[in-house]
Amino acid sequence: MPPLNTSHPSPVTFLLMGIPGLEHLHVWIGIPFCSMYVVAVVGNMTILAVVRAERSLHEPMFLFLCMLSVTDLVLSTSTLPRMLCLFWLGAHDIAFDACLTQMFFIHSFTALESGFFLSMAIDRYVAICHPLRHTTILTHTRITMIGIIVVIRGVAFFSPHPILLKQLPYCRTRIIAHTYCEFMAIVKLACLDTGTTKRYSLSMATIIGSCDAILIAISYVFILRSVFRLPSREASFKALGTCGSHVCVILVFYSTAGFSIFTHRFGKNIPAHIHIFIANIYLLVPPFLNPIVYGVRTKKIREHVLRTLVVKVV
User: Fold this and answer.
1) 117-162, pLDDT tens digit by residue?
2) Alpha helix locations (H) across 7-139?
3) Which domains does the chain have, with CATH numbers?
């Protein structure tokens, strides 16, 4: 096949093939994926609406939760609708520019997700280890600055990705053996030696993910140390229950994301369908779980939602 000239006026298209080896199950796989997307959209929008309406929830924890909810909405919406078109309608074609746009949103907002997990861990550390100084340390100005830094970091580190891919000639094939446009899946189609480009992308993802994960682990070590020193056993169990659910979501995100990153580097013998399926999990499961763990299990949000539903029914 001749090189795909990305500067040609006619749009260049790629073909997303879904999960290799599981094409016959695409229709059935789309059902739980769609269900998770609906829960993610409804749950995260509910959190945003409740926090906006209830002024008593304008606290650091809930403000960071709103930032995480916006990130989840963008991350899931940039992947799931297009993925369901592939699974249910057989829509394999995706325009080159649309592919690069999707790739940018996926990678940059995954970095934002990681950054807001770290921000929420820091908030929990301050709230539990320094409760009397919580509101003075995490003022609205500092919360805003943290949010801006997280966004700038995600955009700055991953803005070069579409620019780099735009410059490459593509001649091997137009087929992307994936359910969405991922940087490593696209760069493999280039005619040139892209070793340096691949190393840059993997390095950025590894640095951001590992640094955030290490800092989160350190914060939870201090949190657990403070929790076990609480005089009341009931208070200790309550704090452990809250932290435990948060840690579960974080572990799902970082373990699946780490598996996907290191598979590109070292896992040459791992079957493609396993790699791609797990790559979908780390994009779909956190936006699905976050509203449940951070929303339903949070008493103030749960009470506001129930109170609103009761008023509407009456």
Assistant:
1) 999 999 988 988 888 888 899 999 999 999 999 999 999 999 989 9
2) 26-53, 60-77, 80-89, 96-129, 134-137
3) 13-313 (1.20.1070.10)
